[in-house]
Write a structure and sequence with these properties.
Length: 229
């Protein structure tokens, strides 16, 4: 009888030891701190200031363009040749006749389009501490601006780059993302990777399965009272 009890106790100890969750063979990543460092706060403030300056430049540009259009009196001198614009318009087979005013409107529209795209490209040039506007600056301006998304297909992706001290580089140093679709220095919350999730699930599953088959000690059964004779 003593041998049976000792064997049962040893078996229970073995089951309890196997019920301990397994330590994963990898090192889990620490959770990202929600409090930004002083360097991140400084980078965020600089980016916000630069972003506000960009918006002000674009607003001033369109305000000046609106004033120029309202005060325009000379329709004879144009920055772009009207004959060339008219020739491009006639490339459409459905276009039969073109009025004299249509090329003038197109000339002004093309002029404003070039000026705005140049301004946005130059902003990217200044971000990267350069004084020469490059083709990559134009490509970056196109990808950053939603109204220019129709030009994305004609811009090679290898031309879109963020070098020097651009917004994306500063955002990366501040712990943000290089994606332009996110706000400036958007701190992405830490999410466990699939490996971490699978590891935690495996450890929990092993512990639960071991506990399910554990032989817990049963309370002694009480003998039914004997009937009085």
């Amino acid at each position: 009888m003593n041998m049976d009890q000792s064997d049962q106790q040893m078996h229970q100890q073995e089951v309890v030891s196997t019920a301990t969750p397994m330590t994963p063979p990898y090192q889990t990543l620490p959770m990202a701190s929600s409090i930004p460092s002083p360097n991140q706060q400084l980078a965020y403030q600089q980016a916000q200031q630069f972003h506000n300056q960009q918006n002000q430049q674009i607003q001033v540009f369109w305000s000046n363009q609106t004033q120029d259009i309202k005060q325009m009196n000379d329709f004879k001198n144009h920055s772009l040749p009207l004959a060339r614009i008219k020739k491009i318009m006639k490339a459409d087979e459905d276009v039969r006749m073109i009025s004299a005013e249509a090329p003038i409107v197109f000339a002004k529209a093309c002029e404003m389009f070039i000026l705005e795209l140049t301004l946005r490209s130059w902003i990217h040039t200044e971000e990267n501490k350069r004084r020469t506007l490059q083709k990559s600056d134009i490509a970056s301006a196109i990808t950053r601006t939603d109204i220019f998304d129709f030009l994305v297909d004609i811009v090679p992706r290898d031309e879109v780059k963020e070098d020097g001290l651009g917004i994306s580089s500063i955002a990366f140093q501040a712990g943000g993302s290089s994606s332009d679709h996110l706000p400036y220095y958007y701190m992405l919350p830490h999410h466990p990777s699939p490996v971490e999730v699978s590891g935690m699930f495996y450890a929990t599953q092993q512990a639960c399965s071991s506990l399910a088959y554990m032989h817990w000690p049963q309370p002694p059964q009480q003998e039914p009272p004997k009937a009085d004779t």
